[in-house]
Amino acid sequence: MAASGEGMGLAIKVADGAKRAKHAVSIELLRQLGWISPTLAETLSDRYLNVSPFVRLEVLGELCMA
Protein backbone atom coordinates (compact mmCIF):
# COMPACT_ATOMS: atom_id res chain seq x y z
CA MET A 1 0.00 0.00 0.00
CA ALA A 2 1.23 3.50 -0.64
CA ALA A 3 0.06 7.07 -0.21
CA SER A 4 0.18 8.75 -3.59
CA GLY A 5 2.38 11.84 -3.53
CA GLU A 6 3.56 11.38 0.07
CA GLY A 7 6.55 9.17 -0.67
CA MET A 8 5.36 6.65 1.90
CA GLY A 9 4.59 2.98 1.66
CA LEU A 10 3.43 0.25 4.00
CA ALA A 11 4.23 -3.46 4.04
CA ILE A 12 2.68 -6.00 6.40
CA LYS A 13 3.94 -9.52 7.09
CA VAL A 14 1.86 -11.91 9.18
CA ALA A 15 3.95 -14.88 10.33
CA ASP A 16 1.22 -17.49 9.88
CA GLY A 17 -0.26 -15.83 6.79
CA ALA A 18 -3.72 -15.53 8.34
CA LYS A 19 -5.95 -13.13 6.44
CA ARG A 20 -7.87 -12.22 9.58
CA ALA A 21 -4.75 -10.66 11.12
CA LYS A 22 -3.64 -9.04 7.86
CA HIS A 23 -7.03 -7.38 7.33
CA ALA A 24 -7.30 -6.13 10.92
CA VAL A 25 -3.79 -4.66 10.94
CA SER A 26 -4.16 -3.12 7.48
CA ILE A 27 -7.44 -1.39 8.27
CA GLU A 28 -6.19 -0.02 11.61
CA LEU A 29 -2.87 1.22 10.20
CA LEU A 30 -4.56 2.92 7.26
CA ARG A 31 -6.98 4.62 9.66
CA GLN A 32 -4.21 5.75 12.03
CA LEU A 33 -2.14 7.13 9.15
CA GLY A 34 -5.17 9.05 7.90
CA TRP A 35 -5.08 7.29 4.53
CA ILE A 36 -8.72 6.23 4.96
CA SER A 37 -11.56 7.88 6.85
CA PRO A 38 -13.00 6.44 10.06
CA THR A 39 -16.22 5.78 8.13
CA LEU A 40 -14.40 3.77 5.47
CA ALA A 41 -12.45 1.92 8.19
CA GLU A 42 -15.73 0.92 9.81
CA THR A 43 -17.17 -0.22 6.47
CA LEU A 44 -14.09 -2.30 5.74
CA SER A 45 -14.16 -3.76 9.26
CA ASP A 46 -17.78 -4.79 8.82
CA ARG A 47 -16.87 -6.57 5.59
CA TYR A 48 -13.56 -8.20 6.49
CA LEU A 49 -13.48 -8.68 10.26
CA ASN A 50 -16.61 -10.72 10.87
CA VAL A 51 -16.39 -14.24 12.22
CA SER A 52 -17.71 -16.75 9.73
CA PRO A 53 -20.92 -18.52 10.79
CA PHE A 54 -19.09 -21.76 9.96
CA VAL A 55 -16.41 -21.20 12.61
CA ARG A 56 -16.95 -23.26 15.75
CA LEU A 57 -15.94 -21.18 18.73
CA GLU A 58 -15.90 -23.81 21.44
CA VAL A 59 -13.23 -25.27 23.66
CA LEU A 60 -12.33 -28.78 22.54
CA GLY A 61 -9.71 -29.50 25.19
CA GLU A 62 -7.25 -28.03 27.64
CA LEU A 63 -3.56 -28.37 28.29
CA CYS A 64 -2.66 -28.48 31.97
CA MET A 65 0.94 -27.97 33.00
CA ALA A 66 1.81 -29.75 36.23
Kindly describe this structure.
The protein is mostly helical. It has one domain. The protein has two helices and two strands; from the N terminus they run E-E-H-H. A two-stranded antiparallel ribbon has the order 1-2. Strand 1 and strand 2 form a beta hairpin. Helix 1 runs antiparallel to helix 2.
What would a concise description of this structure say?
By secondary structure, this protein is mainly alpha-helical.
Q: What labels describe this entry?
A:
elongated; 66 residues; 39% helix; two-stranded antiparallel ribbon; 2 strands; 2 helices; mainly alpha
Helix content estimate: 25-40%
Head-to-tail CA distance between termini: 47 Å
Q: Return Rg in Å.
A: 17 Å
Number of domains: 1
- The total beta strand count reads 2
Series of H and E elements: EEHH
Class by helix and strand content? mainly alpha
Shape call: elongated
Low-pLDDT parts are: none
Mean pLDDT over all positions:
80
> What proportion of the residues form beta strands (DSSP E)?
5-15%
Largest beta sheet, briefly?
2 strands, antiparallel
Biggest sheet: strand arrangement: 1-2
**Structure annotation, total helices:** 2
Give me the secondary-structure topology.
Layout (H helix, E strand, L loop, with lengths): L1 E2 L4 E2 L9 H15 L4 H11 L18
Antiparallel strand pairs: 1-2
Helix pairs in contact: 1-2
